[in-house]
Amino acid sequence: GDIKKGGYCMLKGFPCKVTEYSTAKPGKHGSAKATIVGIDIFTNKKYEDTAPTGATGSVPNVTKEELEVADIDEDDFVSVILPDGDLKTDLKLPIEDEELYNELKKVWDEREDKTIYFTIQRAVGKEKFIAARSK
């Protein structure tokens, strides 16, 4: 009952943003069923699952953080400055998502004297860039 459209849940073991949620009335031999459809927040792959409405499902802890970009090297690895001042250098631009990759690259290439910030989304031990802005 806590899962809502626009929220997050684990579908088939993947952290997903819920795009559809519907329930079917209880049948002759059981409880009401919920059908949940979601998009994986890292791969954009669609997943669907059905479960009794009383079942418990897991909800991933999804966080977003905006970090200042220090550099992008020729192999598309991004160096970002963490809030404590340390440098994180193990994040790579999302080459599999061509639209997002081009947006991030464009903001970086057109930076001139501006400070660039990339937003990182984290869940279940994974990280992904999701947005960019200049200031």
Automatic annotation (TrEMBL):
Post-translational modification comment from the UniProt entry? eIF-5A seems to be the only eukaryotic protein to have a hypusine residue which is a post-translational modification of a lysine by the addition of a butylamino group.
Pfam families hit by this protein? eIF-5a, IF5A-like_N
Q: Name one GO biological process term.
A: translational elongation
Instruction: Indicate the transmembrane segments per the record.
Output: none
Please list the residue ranges annotated as the Translation initiation factor 5A C-terminal domain: 61-133
Record-level Gene Ontology MF annotations: ribosome binding; RNA binding; translation elongation factor activity
Q: Does the keyword Iron-sulfur apply?
A: no
Question: Looking at the keywords, is Repeat present?
Answer: no
Q: What UniProt keywords are attached to this protein's entry?
A: Elongation factor, Hypusine, Protein biosynthesis
Protein purpose = Translation factor that promotes translation elongation and termination, particularly upon ribosome stalling at specific amino acid sequence contexts. Binds between the exit (E) and peptidyl (P) site of the ribosome and promotes rescue of stalled ribosome: specifically required for efficient translation of polyproline-containing peptides as well as other motifs that stall the ribosome. Acts as ribosome quality control (RQC) cofactor by joining the RQC complex to facilitate peptidyl transfer during CAT tailing step.
What family does this chain come from, according to its entry?
A: Belongs to the eIF-5A family.
What is the name of the protein in this document? Eukaryotic translation initiation factor 5A
Q: What is the lineage of its organism?
A: Eukaryota, Metazoa, Ecdysozoa, Arthropoda, Crustacea
